[in-house]
């Protein structure tokens, strides 16, 4: 099942390390079937606040996303970003094509009834 890496990265001043990171990142993605889906595009905030930028990568599955994150190739370049850009990064699996939120609704109703 498709998995995504979503990064909410805070604005950072330009730095040569960041340029190197961006140049080298695609080579770390390829062995795991990863690709860019969103890269530093303008975004609209509809609720709350979301300073900074968004990067979203797609992988064939969660195993590939985890393997990429843990790979020696990525771990080698990650400090080029993390030394200069603060942010939050998550890995998340896509829901199946036939997904409905019915089970989530049931769990919420049951939990609410207990209170």
In words, what does this structure look like?
- Pfam families: DUF1330.
- Residues 2-94 form the DUF1330 domain.
- InterPro entries: Dimeric_a/b-barrel, DUF1330.
- With 115 residues, this protein is an alpha+beta fold.
- The chain has one domain (3-114): Alpha-Beta Plaits, CATH 3.30.70.
- The protein contains 4 helices and 4 strands; from the N terminus they run βαββααβα.
- It has helices at 16-29, 62-70, 72-82, 102-114, and strands at residues 3-9, 35-39, 53-59, 87-93.
- A 4-stranded antiparallel beta sheet has the order 2-3-1-4.
- α1 (16-29) packs antiparallel against α3.
- The longest helix is centred in the first third of the chain and has 14 residues, at 16-29.
- It is globular, with a radius of gyration of 17 Å.
- The mean pLDDT is 94.
The overall number of domains is: 1
Overall CATH class? Alpha Beta
Estimate the global geometry from the Cα principal axes: globular
Arithmetic mean of pLDDT: 94
How big is the Rg? Answer: 17 Å
Portion in strands: 15-25%
Order of secondary-structure elements: EHEEHHEH
Low-confidence stretches: none
Helix content bin: 40-55%
The total beta strand count reads 4
The main sheet comes to: 4 strands, antiparallel
| CATH topology category name | Alpha-Beta Plaits
In whole angstroms, how far apart are the ends? 35 Å
Tally of contiguous helical segments: 4
Strand order of the largest sheet: 2-3-1-4
Assembly level: single chain
Structural class: alpha+beta
CATH architecture: 2-Layer Sandwich
Domain DUF1330: 2-94
InterPro entries: Dimeric_a/b-barrel (IPR011008), DUF1330 (IPR010753)
């Amino acid at each position: 099942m498709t998995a995504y890496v979503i990064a909410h990265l805070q604005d950072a001043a330009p730095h040569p390390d960041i340029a190197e990171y961006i140049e080298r990142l695609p080579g770390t993605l390829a062995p795991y079937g990863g690709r860019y889906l969103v890269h530093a595009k303008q975004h609209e905030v509809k609720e709350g606040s979301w300073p900074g930028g968004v990067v979203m990568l797609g992988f064939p599955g969660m195993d590939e996303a985890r393997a990429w994150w843990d790979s020696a190739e990525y771990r080698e370049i990650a400090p080029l970003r993390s030394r200069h850009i603060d942010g939050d990064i998550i890995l998340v699996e896509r829901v199946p094509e036939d997904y409905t939120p019915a089970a989530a609704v049931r769990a919420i109703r049951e939990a609410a009834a207990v209170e």
